[in-house]
Design brief:
Strand order of the largest sheet: 5-4-1-6-7-8
Shape: globular
Low-confidence stretches: none
Oligomer: single chain
Order of helices and strands: EEHHHEHEHEHEHEHE
Radius of gyration: 17 Å
Distance between the termini: 21 Å
Helix content: 25-40%
Mean pLDDT: 93
């Protein structure tokens, strides 16, 4: 068995895929049927956060509404063909290049497991990843991004010279909490100046720049 030269853990939304248009359309349908408890700008939601956190914000922790909205959202989103969800530029070619270098790749995402796997398969990139850690791999089980990364590190004996790649401060601090090198991408859902506050090991403006670091 060939030992991988390097290991990379990727965030999904805002790093590998742009799922914002699809998520917004789904939320519009949910909010039309289940009225929110607050007034807010849909475009300003933290699209890297897990669904329950977003719904608790929208419905002011009203458990009944949150549960109803979660079920409706899941029913709509999980049946999507994900045509509005796109890979960022050069993602597939970069993943192919990393794979050819015998680099082990993983996903750690706040998205729920079912749509995560459907999207990876629909975009034909699922085979690049050894393992995927996501929300609700077991029903109603929510784990934090640092916990996901720790699971991967333990499960696959990932060394601390490995990388965590993501588009939010939470991705960077989650990698740092597990003593990994971190790569912040500036094309995702959080501004470059916000990412710099977290002091990532590296910052890139395009996905393909990963090849210059590894």
């Amino acid at each position: 068995m060939t030992i991988p030269k390097q290991h990379i853990i990727f965030d999904l939304d805002g790093t590998i895929i742009d799922s914002k248009p699809e998520i917004i359309e789904t939320f519009k349908k949910v909010l039309h049927k289940i009225k929110p408890e607050i007034t807010f700008d849909l475009e300003s939601l933290d699209f890297g956060a897990n669904l329950v956190k977003l719904l608790n914000f929208i419905y002011s922790n009203n458990t009944e509404k949150v549960n109803e909205a979660k079920q409706l959202y899941s029913d709509i989103y999980d049946r999507s063909n994900f045509e509005q969800t796109l890979l960022f530029a050069k993602v597939e070619s970069v993943l192919k290049a990393l794979n050819s270098k015998n680099i082990a790749m993983y996903i750690a995402t706040n998205k729920r497991y079912i749509p995560t796997m459907r999207i990876l398969k629909q975009k034909r990139i699922n085979h690049f990843f050894i393992d995927v850690q996501a929300q609700e791999m077991q029903e109603n089980t929510i784990i934090t991004k640092p916990e996901m990364i720790k699971i991967l590190i333990t499960k696959f004996n990932i060394p601390n010279y490995a990388f965590m790649v993501g588009d939010t401060v939470g991705d960077i601090t989650s990698g740092q909490a597990n003593q990994l090198q971190t790569i912040a991408v500036t094309y995702g859902y959080q501004l470059a100046n916000e990412l710099e506050v977290a002091k990532p090991t590296y910052t890139i403006n395009q996905f393909e720049e990963i090849l210059n670091l590894i």
